[in-house]
Amino acid sequence: MRRKLTSIANGAVPLGFVVLLLVTWEYLVRWKAVQEWILPGPVLIARTLAGNLPLILKHTQTTLMECLAGFALAIVLSFILAFVMDEVPLLRRALYPLLIASQTVPIISVAPLFIIWFGYGIMPKIIVVILVCFFPIALSLLGGLAAVDREYLELFRSMKATRLDIFRMVKLPLALPSFFSGLKIAASYSVMGAIIGEWLGAKAGLGMYMTVAQRSFQVDRVFAAILTITALSAALFALVALIERLVIPWNRLTEWRDS
Amino acid sequence: MPKVVAEGIKKTLGGVLTLQEINIEVEEHAIVGILGPSGCGKSTLFNIIAGLMRPDQGNVYIEGAAVTGNAGLASYMRQKDLLLPNLNVLDNVSIPLVLKGMPKKKARLEAEQHLSTFGLQGFENYYPSQLSGGMRQRAALLRTYLYASGIWLLDEPFASLDAITKRKMHTWLIQVLGQFQPTVLFITHDVDEALYLCDKIYVLSECPTVVKLEVEVPFSRPHHSHTIVDPAYGPVRDTIMDALSI
Fold first, then answer.
1. Omega into B208 within 30° of 0, i.e. cis?
2. Which residues of A fall within a CB distance of 8 Å from B95?
């Protein structure tokens, strides 16, 4: 009971702070301390969001599709690469530095290339999402596979398990917690990737909606888009967290014991 | 004919001569202890006998056949329980059967019959993280047994348990060994554990390792908790202690 009360109090403190922040913001705008076309108040933003909801939802749909497609493809690619790199040590040594080095190239700087090569459709956006998601997923999966206790492998070899058996029964399940932490990072990054892709030129999507609003100084619409993007990122993160709970329930058991 | 023989085993690991020359013989159904200081290459020796590692020189024989470097002929259990955290107890102990190609359902049924002997009845659906250390080691031993090789390599199986649990496990292990009659090689660095459980004890030296002493344990099996007051106990223990130079 006491614990429950504490947890409610723990949630109430940051929530109360956010409310305070919003009220102060609205108050400042109402008192004309800031011009409304520079910084609209939370109430106006909420009203704009509600008023444009059908249009925003339509754009959200496009962005979401790009995210999911890129995310799924990134997972598939990561699995292939991680499996190959884990099974063939030579490839691991050859590719690992390249993988790290590739991350020093800012994605935003190469994104315009994809527009040139693939036009204004959703293809270049999906590629940007793949590039953004691939690294955290592949790295966490590789790390998880490499971190598997050697003694497990020896035990299974002593029971005459094949390499495939060992990968399927030992390495993969033991790497899953690490894989999911990478997946959660990638899920929230994926929306950012799609938005960057859309900024550079698109027919639809939240990023395109944002650029249009920005060019006509409709700051309230820009804020409405930011709010939607944030919600979308959070929703994707929550979805992955939910899937994690379903796929590796045993991982949470350990957490209970430790706490 | 002895069941397991390791003959003239020599192994250099990372430039260090770990095993200089090891000769070991284990009779069928015997329980043989390997006693030695830590870092003397006991686990390396087990990896070689288990066929996971090849010695630089020497051979391993099982029932007279040279099997050096062949994995899968002996059941191997370690200090860590090495249960998979994502599987419940029943699925964990069924692993050796599944790896041999038995359908999962049949493997579960087969494994289920042995749960009570191993003190795991009612816990088949628990995940390893929900079990005590003693139960996890018993599950690991059941998995070892279900591999059904007849040769058990036990590498400090109880070293991570507290003294009382360990003692209980000894009593229980003696009963299980009496029931299944496997041929056992048992690594430990606990002299009393070795004397309590084993028929014969090899004492190993520090690195580079040789067999320093081979002792037949003069108490008749089954051992019981009063072994320690047997008049023969003190002298044998002293001999081993001298060999370990402690």
1. yes
2. 159, 169
Domain check: are B164 and B240 in the same one? Answer: yes
The model's pLDDT over A89-143, given as tens digits with 9 standing for 90+, comes to: 899 999 989 888 888 888 888 888 998 999 888 899 999 999 999 999 999 999 9
Residue A254 in tokens: 């350990």
CATH assignment at residue B245 = 3.40.50.300
Digit-coded pLDDT (tens) for B132-178:
888 999 999 999 999 988 899 999 998 888 888 888 888 888 888 88
pLDDT of res. B225? 61
pTM: 0.82
Say if residue B196 is in the same domain as residue B213: yes
Residues B162, B136 share a domain: no
Q: Read off the tokens for A38.
A: 């520079």
Q: Quick one: B143 and B160 in the same domain?
A: no
- In angstroms, the CA A183 to CA A168 distance is 19
Domain that includes residue B64, residue range? 1-74+150-246
- In chain A, the domains with their CATH numbers are 40-98+105-258 (1.10.3720.10)
Which residue does chain A place closest to B79, by CA atoms? A151
Chain B residues with beta carbon closer than 8 angstroms to that of A257: 129-130
Let me know whether B68 and B154 are in one domain.
yes
Task: Answer whether A161 sits within 8 Å of B86, measured CB to CB.
Answer: no
Query: A250 CB near a chain B CB, below 8 Å?
Result: yes
- Residue that finishes a domain, picked among B133, B148, B163: B148
Give kind and range of the element (H or E) at residue B58: strand B57-62
What is the longest distance spanned by two Cα atoms in chain B? 53
Name residues 64-83 of chain A within 8 A of B (Cβ).
none
Are B86 and A250 a contacting pair at CB < 8 A?
yes
Residue where a domain terminates, one of B98, B124, B148: B148
Centre a 10 Å sphere on the Cβ of residue B65 and count the other Cβ atoms it contains.
Answer: 9
Which token pair is B245?
Answer: 């130079």
Contact A158 B82 (CB under 8 A): no
Residues B175 and B200 in one domain: yes
Q: Phi and psi at residue A245, in whole multiples of 5°? A: -60, -40
Average per-residue pLDDT for chain B? 88
Q: What are phi and psi of B201, to 5 degrees?
A: -130, 130
The interface predicted TM-score (ipTM) is 0.87
Quickly tell me which residue has 């067999």 as its tokens. B211
